[in-house]
Amino acid sequence: MLLSNITDSMTGMVPLSVDFDSPEDYFIFIFQILFATATVLVAGTVVIGILATKALRLQNRFIFMLNTSICDTLVGFSVYYLGLFDVQEGYPSRNGTYNVLPSLLGINILTFLFAQFDRYFAVCHPFIYSRFITRHFVIGINLYCWVYSFAHLLARNLLPLSKAIQLYVFSIVFLQLIVFTKVVMTIKLYVIARYQLARDPPSAERESKKESLRIVIFVVISFLVLWCPSFVNIIIRFVAGGGLTFRNEATNLFAILARFNTLCTPSVYIWGSPALREAMLKTVWGRACPRCKRRVESCHGKADTSKSWK
């Protein structure tokens, strides 16, 4: 494989991420393919379902879901490169993308934070929320996540290496502040919503708030579980000079865990939102499998009939 790598470097091709000298290499390679495909299919169908359904596009919470799902879909496509080829992002970099592909995960982090603030104002200050937090404002916030992340990325690529590393360390510290804020907001949202929603009379708006809060809480919990190991390892590497290092992105267990969040998040959306599942059934799954669509529609019809008899 060494001769193959030398030949690849001479021809300008990027070598593969593993040597295929052991069963573990085959497992890693197959896992990366399956993971990338699953992420693109799950997150991509969420994107199509929201874009093709006007009733979902008009709701602020689904705009946040759309933004994160677009990022998740792009991350899934990026795994076909980061996971299958010998790529090392960061400092030092090898066959990297100037940190363009990893920056997609940063967009998700910012979007999650603003989504939590959105749900906080929707539950705790409904009058202020309905007056000031408009659909155009939410779209602008989501666009800001993209502009900020790529402006930060552009600055890191244009600065000298020493300054770029300092900016990278600053961004890691800033992410820790975001994580701390997310934890505080999640706890506060849970405590407030538990009592406030219990006092509200049964209504469609109440169920919508419960659904969106449940999704936000589960998304944040999965984010913390999957991202914390990577954060801790990066801090140890840059502060204490220790930590674990890996051969490339395909074998970086912490990076794999962080990217796995892009599959968990749209899965939580699908699990927690019946409206999204119905939209995806009509726009994607129903067309791919008409038999499944007829079966689900017949189940809905029976449920409606039973309700009418009651």
What does this entry look like structurally?
This protein has 310 residues and is mainly α. It is 81% helix and 0% strand. The protein contains 12 helices and no strands. The longest helix has 39 residues, at 161-199. 30% of the residues are buried.
**CA radius of gyration:** 22 Å
Termini separation: 70 Å
By secondary-structure content and strand pairing, the structural class works out as mainly alpha
Estimate what percentage of residues fall within beta strands: under 5%
The tally of strands reads 0
Helical coverage, percent range: over 70%
Overall spatial form: globular
- Summarize the main sheet: none
Tags for this entry?
310 residues, mainly alpha, 12 helices, 81% helix
Outline the fold blueprint.
Blueprint: H1 2-11, H2 23-51, H3 54-57, H4 60-82, H5 103-124, H6 126-132, H7 135-158, H8 161-199, H9 204-240, H10 253-272, H11 274-288, H12 290-309
Helix pairs in contact: 2-4, 2-10, 2-11, 4-5, 4-7, 4-10, 5-6, 5-7, 5-8, 5-9, 7-8, 8-9, 9-10, 11-12
Concise synopsis of the structure shown:
With 310 residues, the protein is mainly α. It is 81% helix and 0% strand.
